[in-house]
Prior knowledge:
Blueprint: E1 4-9, E2 13-20, E3 23-30, H1 57-79, E4 84-89, H2 93-103, E5 110-115, H3 121-133
Amino acid sequence: MRTKVGLWIDHRKAIVVAVTDKGAEIGLIISAIEKQARRSLSSRSKGPYEPQQVPADDSRQRAFTGHLNIYYDAVIASLRDAESILIFGPGEAKGELKKRLKKINLGGRIVGVETVDKMTDRQIAAKVRRHFAE
């Protein structure tokens, strides 16, 4: 059975549409990434040690990268059986995923990378079906 996969991805979630001879299946992968902690403008320093209460930028970046690695591994696991992969989405995640796929020798299966805005699940499924019907 030939499986073609379309993937809408950003850093928060990935929507995977697998198109086979039997039809299309839609899957959802949610990342565990939270927005980076920032100081609110209304809060003032409540004591002399306030800067020590906010994690250093490098530790926040390491945590963010660790969450991204787990997220991308889950996305790649859902793409392993695909013979053709179309990646699209609004941000940097599609390019980051493409690099990871090339590293593990799955880059040859990528048939396209496109920048698109936010889409509904139905719009994503229709775009993937249209792309692979050509």
